[in-house]
Amino acid sequence: MKTFLVVDDSSVVRKVARRMLEEWSFEVDEAENGAVALVRCRRQMPDGILLDWNMPELTGVEFLEQLRSEAGGTAPRVVFCSTNNDASHIASALSAGADEYIMKPFDADILREKLVEVGLLEEEPT
C-alpha cells in the first residue's frame, strides 16, 4: 500500500485530504507543520506528500528544501497546495523540488488528476 503524508496547519484540510486519499487506498499520516512533517519523513519516507505553503515552524518551502537534502528525500512525489496562484510562488515551489502545484480549495477530481500526473495513481478507465 502506498503511503501519503498530508502537511497542513488546518485540521479541516488534513481531514478532507485524508478522506480522499484513503478512498484511493493510500495509507495516510498527517502533520500540522513542516517541523513535524520532517520528523515523520525521517522515520519513514512516504510515497507522496500534500504540502501547504504557509505554516508555523517550517514553511512548506523550508520543509521541502530540507526534505530534498535528506537521505531518500528525493523519492516522495510532492504536491504543493496553496491559496496563492501567483506565478512566482509556483516557480518557487517547483524550484524547491515540488512535483506539482494545486490551488485551495481543491476537490477530488483536481487532486486525483495531479496524483496521476506525478505517477502515484493510475488513470481511471474511460
UniProtKB/TrEMBL annotation:
Residues where 4-aspartylphosphate is found: D52
Matches recorded under PROSITE patterns = RESPONSE_REGULATORY
Q: Keyword Phosphoprotein: yes or no?
A: yes
Looking up SUPFAM superfamilies in the UniProt record yields: CheY-like
The Response regulatory domain covers which part of the protein? Answer: 3-119
Report the Gene3D superfamilies cross-referenced here.
3.40.50.2300
| Entries under SMART domains matching the protein | REC
**Keywords attached to this entry:** Phosphoprotein
Q: Which InterPro entries match?
A: CheY-like_superfamily, Sig_transdc_resp-reg_receiver, ST_Response_Regulator
Query: In which domain of life is the source organism classified?
Result: Bacteria
Q: Which Pfam families match?
A: Response_reg
Q: Tell me the PANTHER family matching this sequence.
A: TWO-COMPONENT RESPONSE REGULATOR, TWO-COMPONENT RESPONSE REGULATOR ARR22
Q: What is this protein called?
A: Two-component system chemotaxis response regulator CheY
